[in-house]
Input
Amino acid sequence: MFHGGGLHESFRGGWLNIHADWTQHPHVPLVRRLNLIVYLNRDWGEDWGGGLELWAPGAQQAGASVAPLFNRAVLFPTTAETLHGFPGPLRCPPDRSRRSASVFYWSPDYDAVKAGAPITFLPGLRQTRMRAFARSLVPPIAFRLRDGLRSALGRGRREV
Output
């Protein structure tokens, strides 16, 4: 559910090309609307680089750069036009890294929900239909007792 969010860490020489994030969640019908990045870098040297650059589409240079200082937060919309990254290699000492925590705000993608379809099962084999019918008639406790008895007798579990 938290696809792409979490803790991020880049080491000396690391970079992140200018890009626009994806907006559609890969598994559920949600759209990412906002990015929140909180920096976790105590005593970050300005000459180490790593500032988050924010670019306008078609621009020749960054419109703004945000230094990754401890406890600083950046909140921005997630769209195809929200270009950002830190394209220059980090120049921090080898024992240091640029660290941040990212979280996203999601909202329902109503078009994806409307376009979705329920699961449709085919009728199945006669044998599996009969098993399913038998399972619907027998109380679940009977299956738990059966499985417990099989386990106690050292026999593997079989599904009915």
